[in-house]
Write a structure and sequence with these properties.
99 residues, two-stranded parallel ribbon, 2 strands
């Protein structure tokens, strides 16, 4: 899953390193998903957007039976989020269960 790069851009980057990404996708050995984020959209619908990202990721994992996941461009995701959104939705998960 990539944040900020399109699937064609990902393909070009991976191909330049000697991997035939299109072939891997056709063989269902790799699943690609590109998430384009806009700060205003995230602020308005953060619950749906973040939940949607996890649903998309789960679907891609199931599609190919993935044992590993690569998230590219997390900086683009965090740049689209305000500190308030990060604190409200992501910080509690980073600290583990409370009790």
């Amino acid at each position: 899953m990539a944040f900020g790069e399109t699937e064609p851009e990902l393909g070009a980057n991976v191909d330049s390193r000697g991997f035939a990404l299109d072939r891997l996708v056709e063989q269902q050995r790799v699943a690609l998903d590109s998430v384009q984020l806009e700060r205003q959209e995230i602020e308005e619908t953060v619950d749906d957007d973040l939940e949607g990202i996890f649903v998309r990721l789960s679907s891609a994992i199931a599609e190919v039976g993935a044992k590993r996941v690569a998230l590219d461009g997390l900086d683009a995701l965090f740049a689209a989020l305000t500190n308030e959104v990060i604190d409200r939705h992501l910080a509690p998960a980073a600290h583990g269960p409370r009790g």
